[in-house]
Design brief:
- Residues 252-323 form the Disease resistance protein winged helix domain.
- This is NB-ARC domain-containing protein.
- The protein is of the alpha/beta class.
- It has three domains: 13-147, Rossmann fold; 153-236, Helicase, Ruva Protein, domain 3 (Orthogonal Bundle), CATH 1.10.8; 241-327, Sec63 N-terminal domain-like fold (Orthogonal Bundle), CATH 1.10.3380.
- 48% of the residues lie in helices and 12% in strands.
- The protein has helices spanning 26-35, 37-42, 57-69, 78-89, 106-116, 132-137, 153-164, 170-185, 191-201, 207-214, 229-237, 241-249, 261-270, 279-295, 317-327, and strands at 13-19, 45-52, 94-101, 123-129, 145-147, 259-260, 300-303, 312-314.
- The strands form two sheets. It has a five-stranded parallel beta sheet with strand order 2-3-4-1-5, with helices on both faces. Strands 6-8-7 form a three-stranded antiparallel beta sheet.
- α5 links the parallel β3 (94-101) and β4.
- α7 (153-164) packs parallel to α9.
- The longest helix is centred in the last third of the chain and has 17 residues, at 279-295.
Amino acid sequence: MLLSESTSQESNVRIISIVGMGGIGKTTLAQMVCDNTRVKTHFSKIIWVCVSSPFNEIRIAKAILESLTNNTPQLIELDPLLQNVSQSIIGKKFLLVLHDVWTEDYRKFEQLNNALSRGAPGSSILVTTRKETVAKVIGTTNNNMFRLGLLSDEECWSLLSQVAFSGRSSEECKNLKNIGRGIAKRCNGLPLAAKVLGSLLCFKNTREEWESVLESELWKVEEAEKVLFPPLLLSYYDLSSLVRRCFSYCAVFPKAYEMSKDGLIKLWMAQGFFGEIGSRDMEVVGEESFRSLVMRSFFRDVQYPTWREEITFKMHDIVHDFAQYLKEDECSVMEVK
């Protein structure tokens, strides 16, 4: 579908949507598509833009134009930005990923779609969204809509156990297996929940510790989309108070923001999280805090480039929502235009 040419009934740009609830694996699937060798060969340009809410047409157009031209656009109004996108896209077969779309207002999408229509036949827009109505409003046909279903309990257990049993003896695994299967059922079919819980259980060595996870009161948390929050809360409260502060601070960053490890540690230091110790000691504590959050799956997409370049990472959308949930009584986050 993605690699086939447009039919005579389709416009130059095909719209394909991946639909499913938070934590189901939409981002992972979209990343796998973009990393596929055949996809890279088929499209002359692959562009990834995190949309989220609100749908900011100017920010999205700037991100697309920057990817097309490898230059940061200085334009600040939508019309000239879209004109430049339209000119830059002529004759190019592109794949544009619009990640985490929420708006159901077609007018927000229409101008952008018109600007992209000058791309070469076979170009595609790949949308990830939690809402099927969004996919339909922006023009996705049923044939081009992929609805991701929940994992079975057995699949959740397979994913969780791969992480939780890493490095354990067969005897240990046998002793913890029944409790682990009970915990896997708590994942409600969500891969992210299985991964987070598996990362937590890596640090639990006794049956009593595993049973405390299974029987925790935190499973009773109720609120919208918070089906994923109990596993995150279990891992969060298993952290030291210092590392909890470091994690919740990350709510100040935008969704899908690529953070620098060294930059973040400096911000933690500036906030006074590490107390009155020497700067070198602070950096060591910051490194330990960062590693702890990586091992618990709070940070993802960690990039370890050459020694001269910075280590970068991101947070999953749901993990970012969770961080903002923790901070909602302490601060508010505003997008500055």
